[in-house]
Amino acid sequence: EVQLVESGGGLAQAGGSLRLSCAASGFPFDDYAIGWFRQAPGKEREGVSCIGVSDGDENIFYENFAKGRFTISRDNAENRVYLQMNNLKPEDTATYYCAAERDNLGCTVIPGVYDYWGQGTQVTVSS
To answer: Could you tell me the mean pLDDT of each successive run of 10 residues in the chain, 127 residues long?
Structure first.
């Protein structure tokens, strides 16, 4: 059974940090790019960051709002991907999802290309 399980969400103050984790199982993790997405109430799901099958700089992408504040990484030995979020802002409040895409060439934050999705973890940032 394919599973993606997010954890690490919660309540943070503006300027604070959270580290999200995505635990994967049931598919060959090493062959999949992993993306992080978020969805705020009343808004469409949007991409945050993604990482290809290896974590070289050429295989990592951040949306503009995440650059300089968020860091994505993966541990293929543990089948996990992390999203370190620093200097959080109230507008970062959303449900955060990880997703997996079979792709050996890089990664993208287009939701429609992803094969598997987690259930999400809530991040709330107070001002």
So the answer is: 97 98 96 96 96 79 97 95 98 98 87 96 97
